[in-house]
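Aim 2, interim progress: modelling of the 2-acetamido-2-deoxy-beta-D-glucopyranose-bound target.
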Amino acid sequence: MGQSTTCVAFILEINKMAGIFGPISNSIRLTEFSIRDAYTLKIFENNHTRLPSWCNDEDDHLPFCQIIGEY
Ligand SMILES: *[C@@H]1O[C@H](CO)[C@@H](O)[C@H](O)[C@H]1NC(C)=O
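Predicted structure of the complex, ligand included:
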């Protein structure tokens, strides 16, 4: 039997292993996160000048890079 997880806990676990949460990593319980919690974390680049030029070509009101889809 392998491990099982939810989509959001899986993505956040990857972020955690990558060191995104820094010194508080060990205090974070990822299974407590909702999807909304995940995308409202202040871990994403929000400076337009640092985003790739193809980001938000058609939707420049977003403060982050929306790769695909509306949400
Ligand atoms: C955005 O990034 C550019 C390039 O790194 C920098 O010069 C500018 O000060 C940044 N703007 C803000 C609001 O942080």
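The pocket of 2-acetamido-2-deoxy-beta-D-glucopyranose is lined by residues 47, 49-50 (CB under 6 Å). Residues 8 and 35 are 6 Å apart (CA to CA).
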